[in-house]
Amino acid sequence: MKKVSIFIATAMMSGMFLASCGGGEAPKTETPEEEVSAEDLLGEEAPAGDAMEMPVDPAGSTIQWTGSVIGGYSHTGTINISEGTLSMENDMLSGGSFTIDMTTIVPTDENYGEGHTKEDLVGHLGTGDFFDVAANPVATFVITGVDMETSTISGDLTLKGVTNAETLTDVVLDKEAGAASGKMVINRQTYGVSYVSTMKDMVVSDDISLAILVKLAM
Questions:
Q1: CA-based radius of gyration for the chain
Q2: CA-to-CA distance for 116 and 108, rounded, in angstroms?
Q3: 124 Cβ contact list (under 8 Å, min separation 6)
Q4: What is the pLDDT along the chain (218 residues), one digit of tens a residue?
Q5: Buried-most residue among 90, 120, 147, 194 (CB within 10 A)?
C-alpha cells in the first residue's frame, strides 16, 4: 500500500466593502500551502491503514501437483486457479483466498502407455475414487494466518466437500512481480480421496504435493 500524506491547503480570505465615500476592498490574506503529516495532525503515530483487497490473475496463477505410486512412478501435472483475492496491509500479505477449478487437471509427465493414457488418468481422477469432480467442481483455500518469519501461510483447504487446516511452506513474496508462491503437502485420505478397493488404494501414496503460484492482476 502506498503511504499517503495528508495535504491541507488553507486559504483565508476576508473582504469588506466599506459603506463610506471612497471606500475600497480590504486586502486579501492567504496562508501558503503546507504539507502536514498524519502524525503531526493527530499528535501521535498514525493508525495502520485498512487492508486492501486485490484480485488474483488466473492466467498468471497455477498449481503444479505430484502424486506417486509407492515404490514406483509419479504422475505430475497442473490445475488452474480460477479466481481469488489477496489482502495487503502495510505492504505485507495479511489474508485472502482463491478457488481451484477441479475440471482443469492436466497431466504433464510421460508415465503412460497404450493401456494407460493421460486421458484415462484424468477420467479416473474425476471419479468418486478420487475427486468426484461432477459433484465437487471447485476447491478453495482461505488464508487464516501469515508468518513471514517462518515463511509459512496457514489456511483452510476445502476439497471434495471436506475442510482441513493446511500450511503453505517455503513461502516467497515477490512484490515487484506481485506474486506469492509456496509448497503444500496434503494427505488425500483426510479428504476422502481414496479407492473403494483397499488393495489398489494401498499402492498409491497418501501424500499429494502442491506447488502453488498466485499472481495479482496488475
A1: 29
A2: 14
A3: 130
A4: 333 332 323 332 333 332 333 444 444 444 444 443 333 322 333 345 677 999 999 999 999 999 998 878 899 999 999 999 999 888 789 999 999 999 999 999 999 988 889 999 999 999 998 999 999 999 999 999 999 999 999 999 999 999 999 999 999 999 899 999 999 999 999 999 988 767 778 889 999 999 999 999 97
A5: 194
